[in-house]
Design goal:
- The protein contains 8 helices and 5 strands; from the N terminus they run ααααβββαβαβαα.
- By secondary structure, the protein is an alpha/beta fold.
- It has 2 domains: 1-107 and 222-238, no CATH class; 113-221, no CATH class.
- It has a 5-stranded mixed β-sheet with strand order 1-2-3-4-5.
- α6 links the parallel β4 and β5.
Length: 238
Amino acid sequence: MVYVNHIFFYIMNMELKIINIKLKASKFVHLGCGNLTEEEEAKSCIKELQEMSHEQVLNMKKITKVIEKHGKVFSKNGNNILAEEELYNQFVGDVFELFAEFFFKTCSTVGQYGVVNYEPAVNNDDWGVDGYGIAADQRESVGGPTPVVIQIKFRSNPMDEISYTMLAKTGWDGCKNYELDIKRKNNVILFCNTEKGANYLAHNAMGDNLYVVDMRQLDKDVTGIRTTAFWDNFVASM
């Protein structure tokens, strides 16, 4: 794809600390896990990925394993009113949303899934939309800017498929609360770490409204996440 080298050039030339992205207070809350908070463990997770990026080429499978490892540490640290499984799922999901936020604010400036003015949804309670923005390639299109909504899904099993039921909620939430225009293309984005992405029913029902950014696409097309500059900036932004 023509935009791959553009993204690589952009990432390689980023200066440290020019990006100011803060952890989302609505996601990273103190849950009483001894002296360890979710925010602290998330920072430790991203820091480990940064250190790994200086020694080896990262891909989504390696990134997934590190997130899972820190999720297990967080969920087993101290006594908590929430079950371990619930804490684990919360952590890996929140960290992956943070990764997606940084990705969309740094890498995703061109191409089909290019998003500008990305913002995480606030207090969505998994209703549907995890993030939203404007389509980068349609900022000046006829009819005005194209709003896009993003559903972010982390799965431990790379063969899992995201269901139409989940993505339909994202589309409905987008239409109701984010001025989503169903006549525009690629305006519901699924950002996930699986190889399968969305299931057949989702693709069939949503058609060209749905655009999937999955493990294979991230590994193949988005050179930026494999550079040390990406992870150095990620850590600096925290």
